[in-house]
From TrEMBL:
The lineage of its organism: Bacteria, Pseudomonadati, Pseudomonadota, Magnetococcia, Magnetococcales. The keyword Ligase does not apply. One of its GO terms (biological process) is transmembrane transport. It comes from Magnetofaba australis IT-1. This is Putative phosphonate ABC transporter periplasmic phosphonate-binding protein. One of its GO terms (cellular component) is ATP-binding cassette (ABC) transporter complex. It comes from the Bacteria.
Length: 282
């Protein structure tokens, strides 16, 4: 008689359907990130954040890196992940294609909710202004990148430049590839965000032009994520503003100083820039 409870417990463990166990286990969350850097570097930078969220939410948070910016937008809109880290232009395109998404928080860089990019040249380049890019070889990053495609293209179209005015325009995938291509002499000018430019400036780069300031990157929740999960993740991201936890966000970029509440209307000016750029002759 004493052994019966133990017998039934062992029987349950051995023969209970997997669904009975999976229902008791918290389901993992996927944090999807666009490939703005090489994959290994993205994993290294986001690992402290995924660990922190896993511990705080009491469920695994796994990193998923999209194959390119377009896949990042499309797959997240279709439900490939529960969370996403998105640049401003991809966020705008996401909402245009799929509707509204809950914004979980926006990063602050040096206490600012906005950032800029540059069109850079080598320090010894004879190019002195955007108009000098006629006949030049130019490198952009991904075709959906904010600072490595849309904003520099906006600057160039405002100067009356078209793609046909250039000797070559190549999309090389990410910001670091732009810097490497410039330094290697493969291109005469290239577009990249300010933080990557500063990283390589001392190696021989110079800013030719600076983009307008636009909203920083945001963390976004899937449309079908339950409200209690959205609230819990928002609270977890806000907790990273504490001095003893700020290193987690600074692993993404040392100049990140915290997070900031953001709303969709913050991106309206960028929407205007993107529409203007898309409509301009190119």
């Amino acid at each position: 008689m004493v052994m019966k409870p133990l017998f039934w417990l062992i029987a349950f463990i051995l023969f209970a359907p997997a669904s009975a166990w999976s229902a008791a286990q918290p389901q993992p969350l996927a944090l999807q990130i666009h490939p703005f850097l090489p994959s290994l570097e993205i994993h290294r930078r986001f690992h402290p954040l995924s660990n922190f969220l896993s511990q705080t939410l009491n469920r695994p948070v796994r990193i998923r890196i999209a194959t390119n910016y377009a896949e990042h937008i499309q797959s997240f809109g279709e439900g490939s992940a529960q969370l996403a880290y998105m640049g401003p232009a991809p966020y705008v395109k996401l909402t245009e294609q799929f509707g509204a998404f809950p914004i979980l928080g926006q990063i602050l860089v040096n206490d600012s909710p906005t950032f800029t990019g540059v069109i850079a040249v080598r320090a010894n380049s004879a190019l002195g202004a955007l108009r000098d890019l006629r006949g030049a070889r130019v490198a952009f990053g991904d075709v959906n990148s904010t600072m490595s495609h849309w904003l520099p293209r906006y600057l160039m179209t405002q100067e009356g430049l078209k793609r046909s005015d250039l000797a070559d325009l190549a999309h090389v995938g990410n910001h670091m590839n732009v810097a490497f291509g410039l330094l290697a002499g493969e291109f005469d000018a290239g577009a990249l965000k300010q933080s990557i430019f500063k990283q390589f400036q001392s190696r021989g780069l110079r800013a030719l032009a600076t983009t307008p300031a636009i909203p920083n990157h945001v963390f976004v929740a899937a449309q079908n994520l339950p409200e209690e999960d959205v609230s819990a993740i928002r609270a977890a991201l806000q907790a990273l503003d504490a001095p003893d936890k700020r290193f987690i966000l600074q692993a993404l970029k040392p100049s990140i100083s915290g997070t900031h509440p953001a709303v969709d209307a913050d991106f309206d000016e960028l929407r205007h820039v993107l529409r203007t750029t898309a409509a301009a002759p190119w």
